[in-house]
Queue: 2 jobs
Job 1
Amino acid sequence: MQFLRNLVEKQKQLYHAKDSKFHKVWPLFDAFETFLFAPDHRTGPQRVQVRDYVDLKRVMNTVIIAMLPCLLWAIWNTGAQHFHAIGAMIGSGKLLAANYVPGWLQSLLAPNVAAPTAVDTVVFGLQRMLPILIVSYGVGLGIEMLFSVIRNEEVSEGYLVSGMLIALIVPASIPLWQLAIGVAFAVVLGKEVFGGTGMNVFNPAMLVRAFLFFAFAGQMSGDMVWVAGNNSPTGVPGSLIDGFSQPTALAVVKAATTDASAALTHAFSHQDLFFGNIPGSAGEMSKLCVLLGAFWLVFTGVGSWRVMVGGVLGLLASAFLMKTASGAETGPISLLPWEHLLCGGFLFGIVFMATDPVSSPETSVGKWIYGALIGFVTILVRTINPAYPEGTMLAILLMNAFAPGIDHFVVAANIKRRMKRS
Amino acid sequence: MTAMISFVNDEPLVGILLKSVFVENILLSFFLGMCSYLAVSKRVDSAVGLGIAVIFVQVLTVPMNWALQTYVLGEGALAWAGFPDSDLGYLQFLTFIASIAAVVQVVEMAVDKFSPKLYAALGIFLPLIAVNCAILGGSLFMAERKYSFSQSVVYGIGSGAGWALAIVSMATIRWRMRTAHVPAPLRGLGITFITTGLVAMAFMTFSGI
């Protein structure tokens, strides 16, 4: 450890002083130093004096730890769904096992296509998830560093979480160039123009997904994209398995003409929905992994339990009201309220995206309202908007736009109440 | 004289209300009324004031212009006066603008009388409602979609409320962004335009309902 510290101190001379050799890229050096060691900066005599070792970097790392179960499951299940689809195609005679084209990582470790082992599954998952993670972090951090060097600011750590979130909320079959465009859009227009980390109005990861959803609908929605195939990861389009379509749980619900609950359980068992043995965006599938992350976030005090509980209650209450008020026996509106929790990305969104401290309200009451409204709008889209099967993404974006308003009126009401008291 | 009314709009009132507030928000999907939206969204209280004023004016002008359209301007509208072949449609813009200006004048005097503080806060923008595209746009959409009287009242409320919702949320966003370190060339209008675009994207939640 001491050796590393000495090395950093020695290198620091080259960057720190105004006239030193590499002062232009000081923000980059500072970023790496504070990544390795907790910063020992002192604030000036005029400024706030309290400083905690748990700085932004440590908070962000806590969130990343919370997302690890989801990431690991995403790697496993991307492979599992792939081989499940391949197996079905071989079984129906659409594909010959000998014609299976291995990907770049699989060419090192050839898979047993007819009876894939656990290693084959993980290898395929890594083959899809690693490029996505690399593109997401590479493009996003690259833009962030460019901006900090030009604007001579510290590189902030917010993107460490966004980069991981982005990888987890896109379908594993996403073409990488589309992902890169989406990330560039969100980081530049959603974050850097507002002044960088802590200043953005909208959650950058959600913006990436919304941008991709509207710009490249063909690769972000429908029944063909949720199981990754094996075209070249840079190829167009994505990597669908030709002719294999697999609707997600919510697509099944949306298409239901009879009782949605029965249609859902006919396609997926509750157990599969909970443990995540289903197709979907990379990270949202396993509700168990999301719950593990939620416990960790609440336990460490990083994520707001008010938003999470408010959201779940809002979702259950609105689903119950919609079902009861309409009295519908068929169609998406007839899904049981608690089954809404098991479908789609609502739990993932409310745990990891809605609790983003920057784009959510700051007041406690505001957090309850914010969470509940996300649940409400999600149900509204899922049940009565025929255009989209899932509403979590747009519900969170919409509430991001109203979050400052919620805060403003909660504070105004508070002031009014206290004025009356005195 | 047989095909006087070729098309009757039979949309339910609740549908019109939801549609005009969220789905076809007059500001965020048609981008009407941008000038006062950008200028007055700097402060939350004046944004609330202007929002209320727009709702008020819209609720008055849309049904009033509905009456003008139905009984004076439309094709064969003057049948009650003995001119079954009349079509004064070419006077539509002129008449609508004049009636809007008259209503705004009355609202202005009322606000001045009952809330001088709001009157001072709104300043030039209250008379400017007279030339606010959202107001004229509301009346024109009403005529184009052939709303009935009750529909045009609901549409007036909805489109006004949608505009008010957009400006109040933008004002609170700008209030939150007051400490943001926005790059110098984008400060003020630039960043507001970008934010408006992003908010409009979030409003696509409801498109399709």
Note: The CA atoms of residues 64 and 99 of chain B lie 8 Å apart.
Job 2
Amino acid sequence: MNGYKEVEHTADIALQVWAEDFYTLLIQAAKGLYALMGVEPTVAPSRQRLFTLPQGNKETILVDFLTELLFLAEEDGLFLSVFCFDDGQNVISVRSTGQKILTWSREIKAVTFHNLNVETTDQGFSATITFDV
Amino acid sequence: MNPITQKAFTKISDFEWEIPVDFRSDMRVPVRVFASQALLQDAFKDQSIEQAVNVSTLPGLVDAVMVMPDMHQGYGFPIGGVAGTDIETGVISPGGIGYDINCGVRLLASRITLEEATPFLSDLASMLNQLCPSGVGVGSQRKLSNADLVEVCIRGANWAKSDAYTETEDLERTEDQGCLTGADPGKVSSRAMERGRKQLGTLGSGNHFIEVDLVTEIYDEVAAGAMGLYVGELAVQVHTGSRGFGHQICTDYVRRLQGAVAKYGIKLPDKQLVCAPIASEEGQDYLAAMRCAANYAFLNRQILTNKVRQAFEIVLAGKVDQWHLRQVYDIAHNIGKFEHHLVNGVKKTVCVHRKGATRAFGPGTQGLPSEYQEIGQPVLVPGSMGTSSWVLTGTPTSMERSFGSCCHGAGRVMSRSEAKRNIWGETLLKELEKVGIEIRAGSMSGLAEEAPQAYKDVDQVVQSVVGAGIAKKVAVLNPLIVIKG
């Protein structure tokens, strides 16, 4: 099973994500991030973007990935929904496709490392990510 | 791990509590909490105290980790946390300052009476909303060149002076005169520069606001007089920070310092507490970049102040006797600075991290403008939307017990999702308008997240810091107009 849900945090916003493998976990986290931002994408045409993430531990890859999406949303107005990951020796190459953002309703300042652990579960992987808003 | 309870604390006074250093084996200094019994009890509902205990494990801490009564759970550091580190043996932690570097508050005073202003409040609200860019994804009216942004990083609010945005008195009445020395734009990433070029002079969203207030009570006439605050007259608060520029700088350095922790053999209970020795290359680079964001934020509030003054002039010139707004003070509540403090009777230079805490220097402290030397530094404590805000002053006790620091607001008690579940933005808007507050808000869901019910009672927070002796009451402000992104 794959999915995400918002969890309570007094001041900021936290997201619980779970997936059967790590790259699907990243995709679920992306979906959750856009949902928290209240993103409404345009319908067409689609846009493509290629970026890389340095290899590292799973927590760092997760934070780097979401931080990249936040930057692309704010700077280029991009909502990315299809991802293809290529696992290299030093970097992970990410090919992504999506649309321009029509509107979004909440500013997320950053993805934090607060108590972040990507855990192995019977069903795959899970993590709780705290965002600064 | 068992949750921390009241049993962990030693009572110092009705408003001051300490967790001793032997409470947990990895603590290096005690945790000192300024709060009433009731607010201390509230703190056990989230992880703010546990986070303060985590902070107390950082290397090179001096005296104690302090927590203000508006505390709530943050990420890494609690909001309302203050930590001072030895500049030779201690560390600097980006998480102890936060993503919105130099988020802060500016207060402007006027001689406009409520009676004079009442017929024009709706127009004034609309004009402020029109002139001050706010809301999610809203950029500035003027995109800076890279060279301009480099200048901004170095000169802070002084950059505005050369661009006719400011008055000399504004700078004198700004913490550090609106410019931290030691800023180095060369330590700022190209990504941060790109974001910073587009957002100067914008309010943002979330809990940032511009508020026109009425001075309703004065507790200290001498201090209020020095600040130009009089009952029955209008004042303005501007609450914002360094926008995407600061967020990106913090993001960059939290990431970079993940490696520094291992390099310098620092053990942390939470990855978000990443830090580096102040004397290290990583620590120095972060400090130089963080100061750029701090300077950007001082200027951001200065430019918005200019817009607020324009709005007042357009709407009120010729209709009221004096429409000019004079600056009372501008303070940061997310910042790290080198300051001189007496620690166990010895003068020491300390790197004071304030995360959701306001500087509150007492009377006679070096660096305060001459008119505030006798009364102490103005401390600005905004309440939640629709409730009172407070103007306080720092005291000799704040210098002795809290590294010259105080609370920064009401402090959240309800998560944003719970607030949205329980409060309907449109209903809240009508309720606030019914009590005579003009609201201009970018989003109804954002309004619901910032509802007064989501925050502590600011009066109780103020009662705690005054009871603890780290601040003195000066004046109460009540909102007439609220602009939110």
Note: Residues 75 and 218 of chain B are 37 Å apart (CA to CA).
